[in-house]
Amino acid sequence: MGVALGFQAPGGMARLACVVASIAAAQASLQPKHRSAPPPPRPEALTDDDIPVLDIARLMRGEYDETDVRALGRACASPGFFHVVNHGVPAAVIANFEAAMRDFFARQTPEQKRRVKRTATNSRGYADDEFTKRTRDVKEMYDYGHRPRRDLPPDAPENVVLDGHNQGSKRVIQRRFNLPDGLPGFAGAVEAYYDACARVCDGLLRGVAASLDLDPGAFDGLFGGGHTSYLRMNYYPPHAGARFAAADANLDDERLAAGAEDDQATPLEALGGPRLGVNRHFDAGCLTLLYQDPSCSALQVGDMLQVLSNGAYRAPEHRVLASAPGAERFSAPFFYNPAYDAEVRPLAGNAPRYGPFSYGYWRRRRFEGDFADEGKPEIQISDYLLE
Question: Which interval of the chain is the signal sequence (predicted)?
Fold first, then answer.
């Protein structure tokens, strides 16, 4: 399988590769000064042999062996995407989650899905109209996020955060468990997998800090108010068009390298068919964890880690191809994000390359661009580059 940056999501759950109430007053000093930064050069395509595979067993135990730490640092620097094994997530937790995700998309009727559809003020729940770089994705999705008080209903005031709240049926018996209609066990399976992903990312981020010659707890303050991560369940339906062929991905690479398509101005529908399930983009959090199979998951550097590392570690640009005719695909990225009130700024290196900003402000602006085409480019970390 050839993987290009952007990455193509391979077919099948066995190979899954890879917010929102407004902030009342974001400090003016933490808001971006937009500038027209030149686009980064297009990276060359990668093969499986180019993608590092890291054994993270010792890191998960809080053991920072120099060999492991340096290997993690090299992978974060280039290509910013790597596989991890011995992550400690039980196979049963993964299997139960996968079954729950498939059941949601297969067994819920359109009406049931609409009951938990996200809104402009609540990023959690179901959507079939996500935007990426001002183009509409070709997928269905369900977002589940951090719930500070699991002993209370999902929409209790204590559980309504900047991203909104987890949506489920309004029936009293189901409110506590965030359970979509007719799916017994859904919430338990999703929450168990969500917690497992958070543990893996927490352990890895401490290893990342060590790889930057920082104390392993250097990033802990960013999560002091509790992380604001979310788990996204994606369903890419079979495509009925005739544009898809095995070689089409290579043609995509040639077109993209030649700048033949403007990802901020050309709708997917105008490209002769929804070739891309998700347009080219950078993940906005610290780390993205993507399940592949019970023994191996993929990790990807996000924009926040690029800033925290002062550019030493790079968030890779990637995209997802739409499903081929007759095929359907599922994916489940977990986006590990800091607290809403965290100030994101370089913690490594000497002269800072990025100005500080509020993560909550960033998250609000990014979701606005995901929810609808605002007629302007999405917020990017390049907006905070210092002269």
Answer: none
H-state helical runs in the chain: 57-60, 66-77, 91-107, 110-115, 172-175, 186-211, 248-257, 303-308, 359-371
DSSP, collapsed to helix, strand or coil, labels residue 363 as helix
CA–centroid distance for 155 within its chain: 23
Per-residue pLDDT of the chain (387 residues; tens, 9 = 90+): 333 222 233 333 332 223 222 222 223 233 444 444 444 444 455 666 778 999 999 999 999 999 999 999 999 999 999 999 999 999 999 999 999 999 999 988 888 888 888 888 888 889 887 766 566 667 888 999 998 998 998 889 999 998 889 886 444 334 444 456 668 888 899 999 999 999 999 999 999 999 999 999 999 999 877 889 999 998 988 865 544 433 344 444 444 444 444 443 344 444 444 455 566 678 888 999 987 666 778 889 999 999 999 999 999 886 766 676 777 888 899 999 999 999 999 999 889 999 999 999 888 887 775 555 555 577 889 899 996
Per the DSSP assignment, residues forming a β-bridge with 2 are 47
Selection from 370, 278, 269, 289 nearest residue 320 by Cα? 278
Whether a cis peptide bond, with omega within 30° of 0, leads into 182 is: no
Query: Is residue 319 within 8 Å of 281, Cβ to Cβ?
Result: yes
Going by DSSP bridges, is the β-strand pair 318-321/276-281 parallel, antiparallel, or unpaired? antiparallel
Closest CA to 153 of 170, 137, 138, 139: 170
